[in-house]
Amino acid sequence: MKAANSRGSAPGSSRARILVVGGGYVGLYTALRLQRKLKPELRQGAVEIVVITPDPYMTYQPFLPEAAAGSISPRHVVVPLRRVLDQCKIVIGEAQSIDHSKRTATVTTLATDEEGTGAIEVTYDELVLAPGSISRTLPVPGLADHGIGFKTVEEAIGLRNHVIEQMDIASSTRDPAIRDAALTFVFVGGGYAGVEALAELEDMARYASRYYHNVTPEDMKWILVEASDRILPEVGEEMGRYTVRELRGRNIDVRMETRLDSCQDRVAVLDDGSRFPTRTLVWTAGVKPHPVLAATDLPRNERGRIKCTAKLAVDGATHAWAAGDAAAVPDITAEAGKECAPNAQHAVRQAKALADNIAASLRGSPLEDYAHQYVGSVASLGLHKGVAHVYGRKLKGYPAWFMHRVYHLSRVPTFNRKARVLAEWTLAGLFKREIVSLGSLEHPRAEFELAAGGRPPKESS
Fold first, then answer.
1. What predicted TM-score, i.e. pTM, was given to this entire model?
2. Structural domain containing residue 395
């Protein structure tokens, strides 16, 4: 890639390259808005937008629990970047390090892996850091071997297949120990991801059990482990307590102020002394900043996030911007010293402000502060069940579930995706759920390898 010559100068004098690192909420929405704001400059070739992302799509993570439960098709949970960002250059790869003093990013791509030539250097004029976050794990014995994450669409669909496969195992085995382990599902983490994933999958498994002659909802054990004294803190204490009552009313074992000590040999051992033989352990205990942030020369706070100003510019660095999970942005609507929460609500709105400020910077116009008062949260607890705390109003049950769907339908990008998701929800209301495991998709060559005389890959489940 050729380096641009300008350093934030007005478009028209030379091409200014805007490098967006990350294709998640912030990366997609920022690049999408920049396409619109800088349409004349892009047409003239005065500006170039390059997006570096490990996947050719953006995953709308609030829909992952519904995808896992089969309410939404996996392809409708993701937004294809090349179609939406048709005025941008999409590079499928990962930024390994960034030297902002030299305006260069070291990037590995699928091609560099094939060629064996090592990473390439990409130069830029304006940097947007939006790599998001990764799962935060702890040194729990056995976690790396047996844990399942819930942050990508692949993990969500893999978990759905896995749960149904465990029901198949329990239905066909004569060994009570294997049956008990197959029907025990342990989720660690009482935030959005953990609670929504558990609630949706339990709802799906409860429905699926009617098609098994020897598996009932009472046979299954669903366990939620949370280290703090409350779950879903975003929806408030009262709604958190309601959620606990709702889950326990469905025979889900909710254990607060409890930690996972070990999961070696497929046995979940909790710090209260409980032991659960299980073939399913889902880890959703928080996230941490993406490793690329530590490989930059930009200032970070004590939590590893990039220090930013209220204008979403990196504090103390010119021509560098950040937002979302990667950024520590001051919340000017709250008391001094408080930062914006790293959630989707802020990320989407920050991306809009970020794109506007980059365009203003290139044109020599004044920048605006990012200000958004948090309006509340919604969470789904399965089909027709939910909790919400929005604009001071507390909702539960069907109204909260309906608000959850309406809100996220309004937030998912592009009219195309909105229409497809709405159509699926409508059809799901008219017909019965599809309960089928397509676990073989994870090993598509297994049958051919066996036919050709080789050994099929060993199943992880």
1. 0.86
2. 143-285+377-430
